[in-house]
Amino acid sequence: ASYYNNNESANMSDSIWYPMYYYEKNPDNTIDEKGPEVSGYDMNIKLGRQMKVDAKIEYKDIQGAGKVYFTLFHVYTIDSILDESGNNLSFAWDGDRVVVDLIADTKIVRFKYHGGAANFYSGSEGINLPGSFAYYPISGVYKLYDIEKKSWNNVLYDYNVNYKVSISGNVHRVYSNLDEVAENRFEGSACSVTLMSNLYDSINEDGITVVYPKCDMVYSMNDYYYKYFNNYHSETMELFKEDGYINKVIFMEASTSVGIGYIDNGCLLTGQSWYSLYKIRSNNDQYLMDEHTVTKSFEEGEDSYRALYNELTRISKIAYTYEAAFNDYCDIMKRYYYKKYGTEDITYEDFEKSFIKYLGEEELMRLKEGYYEDR
Asked: Cβ contacts of residue 338 below 8 Å, gap of 6+?
């Protein structure tokens, strides 16, 4: 259930590209600042067309009345904020920041809210809620989206918090970085809570559980992309064992949730494929790729672009122009793969030469003639 349920059916907010649209129109100049330390969360999440959340947040040590700040993605609707005695607390909401006026001796702040987002969906049909995303209130002020990199920032605590999470409604199998203590009930000490369901599947090999999107091209076990991505499956699993991921969960996040991966409670959350994980780990002795990590092979970048092109034109079948194809190529090559492109512009000649090499001159002509524009 995405944001169109919040009386916004005619605008961009129901698109996975909404963050770029919103944060370009509403620049976020937030400087990250920690809030009072939190000791625990007790969250009840009810899934239907939307997600409805009742979240109790207990502070570790807070004294007296005053203002406290939380970060919560702005598309949700806050129904009320209460203290532990059920008293309504006044609050103000500006962008992704919620300012709450505490009554004296308040130890617990209780948020009741509902809604959903296109990238980070949360309804009875499926859940894609990585712990790095502020789908629940985070103590402090944090910038959620980096408009220059066009990617989500990781927003999670730098210390462990005790979590209790219960999920109800028409729920499919839910995967989490927390321990499942009963059906759809999770508990544990971690820096965040990841919840994924329905559109994800899992495999377990030698005590390592890997959760991956069923329909995402880079994880598919049996399609065209196997040659370029999944033939590193067994090699990557061996690295997981070597690095001590036994009895831990590896979350391979859907490609709609563009962001930098992280490790929490011994679990790895990443948006990379088997192929990319193996290459990143082999080159950098880690699984996480940040803005400073550049793979060594120009051909790896071209492989990634070819996979994206085939996904968009053959599988997703979206309207796609020559200019859009060129911009996607530049984005991939500049951000991740070829060092010289960090300072030099990519020309149309560069793009077409690479395109013809891997996809053929006939396909380039189809693209330039607008074959994919009216779909």
From this structure: 294, 298, 301
Question: How far apart (Å, rounded) are the C-alpha atoms in residues 40 and 189?
Answer: 9
CA 367, CA 375: separation in Å to the nearest integer?
A: 13
List, for residues 296-350, the tens digit of each pLDDT value. 456 667 777 887 787 778 766 678 899 989 988 887 777 655 544 444 678 899 8
d(CA 206, CA 104): 52
pLDDT digit string, tens, across residues 46-56: 999 889 999 99
Closest among 156, 3, 159, 124 to 75, alpha carbons compared: 3
Closest C-alpha among 278, 299, 285 to residue 232? 278
Q: Is 250 exposed, middle or buried (0-12, 13-18, 19+ CB in 10 A)?
A: buried
Please tell me the distance from the alpha carbon of residue 162 to that of residue 153, in angstroms, as a whole number.
23
3-class SS of residue 53? strand
Bridge partners (DSSP) listed for residue 70: 98, 139
Identify the DSSP state of 88: B
Please enumerate in sequence order all residues whose Cβ is within 8 A of that of 16, keeping only pairs 6 or more positions apart, or say none. Answer: 118, 119, 256
DSSP state of 259: B
- Asked whether 162 and 156 are in contact (CB, 8 A), the reply is no
Of 357, 196, 229, 214, the C-alpha closest to 304 is: 229
- Please give the mean pLDDT across all residues of the chain: 80
**Looking at the predicted structure, is the pLDDT value of residue 223 above 60?**
no
Q: What is the pLDDT of residues 56-69, one digit of tens each?
A: 999 988 766 689 99
User: Rounded distance, CA 249 to CA 260, Å?
Assistant: 17
In sequence order, the β-bridge partners of residue 210 are 203, 250
